[in-house]
Amino acid sequence: MASSTIISRKMIKLLSPTPPSLRCHKLSFMDHINFHLHSPYAFFYPKIPQNYSSKISQILENSLSKVLSFYYPLAGKINNNYTYVDCNDTGAEYLNVRIDCPMSQIINDPYNDAVGVVFPQDLPWSSSLNRSPLVVQLSHFDCGGIAVSACTSHTIFDGHSLSKFINDWASTARNMDFKPSPQFNASTFFPLPSETNLSSTLPTTHPSKRHVSRMYNFSSSNLTRLKDMVTKESHVKNPTRIEVASALVHKCGVTMSMEKSGMFKPTLMTHAMNLRPPIPLNTMGNAVCIILTTTVTEDEVKLPNFVAKLQKDKQQLRDKLKDMKKDMMPLYTLELGKNAMNIIEKDTHDVYVCSGMTNTGLHKIDFGWGEPVRVTLATSNKNNFIFMDEQSGDGLNVLITLTKDYMLKFQSNKELLEFASPVVESTK
């Protein structure tokens, strides 16, 4: 297994200090009830132009310093009860690390777990309370390739905010005159109650070492085949890429569960839905509501039926939120989270968690030396499906995390392999 050696560790300070008027960044109700963990993303670049190789770290540090002046809460400290960020300009943690193997050993490993080496040790998915809200690691491989990983506090950022920050950082690295325009005003839309004694919607959990991840690719042509199959066999209209892909991986999960237990168990699948709009697109923070889709019969698991049910649940949520006052949205989100937790605690359903990081530009992040060949996250909790744009084309990559014994069954599913292929073939 590859090991890493820290070359240097420093705090990247803001190029321009945060004005006193912005020193206290109030967290929103959505921020307060969210996961208080770091979200770990990594970008792999195997071929670095010679004119960049000696100055990559300096480019990243300088551009990070500037972009932090606009994303100043990432350089502060979250207070103990998650109600505000003290924007004290402490800075973001930045590590230079040497990895004692070629990059190919990491990205060609059939299991995504190998990417853990490009993140600070023990940091992915850990609490962001007593650590910098942003921790960056620049990893240098023996072959000359690099990986840039960023762990951002989920208390401060949802997926939309994270993608905006990474894109703005890359734009600044390419052009130091670039000026980002984030707005840290989520608390005006989702204010905290005057007396806040609420705990997080969901418990802070850490991925078990018994969980493993694999990435699968749905090509554009296979997604079209899936869509055609769903629409021909039902009244479903214009299904999205994620709707048909998540329906398939859900069905494969049910098949796997039935093979193991010998019986059907009801399911709950959650999807995250961005609330921008109606919230402005440049509003940073957490602005996400969850869609809960359940099945209680095998017939509901069939792809056309599940996609129809998912579309209905999405539309019902949109209709519910359309006329809802914005300050009521967090309470409703909290209620949905509690409903999901009640189902989880009763163990009456198999639970699958879906999230999408598509249409974010993360698959094309260019700091000046080209686009990445792989974008991924650290291993998450079990039964987790994270959808991302593939590196080229209109297809999808999905990072699937399961327990080890479930993964052995899942990766052999014939229906899965008919429409999706492992990004790296297993040789084990």
UniProtKB/TrEMBL annotation:
Native source species: Solanum pennellii (Tomato)
Similarity annotation: Belongs to the plant acyltransferase family.
Entry keyword Transmembrane helix: no
Name of the protein this chain belongs to: Acylsucrose acyltransferase 3
Keywords: Acyltransferase, Transferase
Gene3D superfamilies: Chloramphenicol acetyltransferase-like domain
GO molecular function, one term: acyltransferase activity
Any Pfam family matching the protein: Transferase
